[in-house]
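step: validate -> pass
step: tokenize input -> pass
step: predict -> running
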Amino acid sequence: MEGRERMDSGVGFETLVAKSKAMKELVEKLHKCAASNRNVFIYGENGTGKKLVANIIHNQSANRGKQLVRVSCSAMTPDMVDVTLFGDEYYGKPGKLEEANGGTLLLEEIAHLTPIAQSKLLQVLEEGSIERRSGAPLPVVFRIVSTSSALSETKLDEFNFQKNLFFKLNTLPLRMPSLRERVEDIPYLANIFVSEICTQERITKPSIPFHYLELLMKVEWTGNIIQLRNHLESVIVLSDGEFDPETIYSQFEVQRQADPAAFLKILYDRIRSGEKVVLDSVLSEIEYSLVKKSLEYADGNQSRAAKLVGLNEQKIRRIMSKHGMKLKRSR
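step: predict -> pass
step: emit ->
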């Protein structure tokens, strides 16, 4: 599933969550890329699922019955590049380019390719053959899917990357949207990840509170899908399979509405501008705001605070726990 970036023959379009406009547009382009045999360049921030999409392109293409050979360019030291890509005739060791013959070659983070490797790869693409060290030319045909989280046409000089090679690899460019561009997908991704994590931990899957999903949609996920999954895994493991508010809010800082009047004014402005307002989320925030304010006026005394908002002490403690407020002893 999305976020785990599996590399197997069973991965298809259905593994992508595409409720958002950004992802629907991506899936539409993916179908076209898979139907073609041209080289594809997938770019986008770290954690957006580039490897998974590369896998899908191969599995849905005419090459799906052939090898998908993966090369991590960032993991190769300069002295490894030659043998890794082109093999060694003396030791009878085939290179990754030979292994990918007839199939797909996945070059991850191509910005890390050395200038010499770039020149040799360009020569292979132009001549249609590879030459092992001390070996004769060997005809090869393969499709290249390359990825990068930093390289672009405007940054070729910065990464000392050859233009001719970049343009050959960039026949079909495909940009991966960040999680910030596909907020509508977050509840669906969260549900998938929670199911996977609970299965791995061998615990019963808890229902995800609505206010928690709303919270997840407000967070700036700079690490994208991977960060979201890691966060959920941390919360579930640390809270023993429950969505403990203390654990949740300790993971990141979230701006909460402490002033009910100010919060309502914001809502009124949103409604006047025609923006959608989700009632359940609004009620949850009002509940939080009023209880927080009553506790402030009661100097943390839960019994007195409960009376201020017409609740009993047990009910106000449940609300405090739900919203991650510190449960202090009544005085």
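step: describe -> The chain has a mean pLDDT of 85.
step: cleanup -> pass
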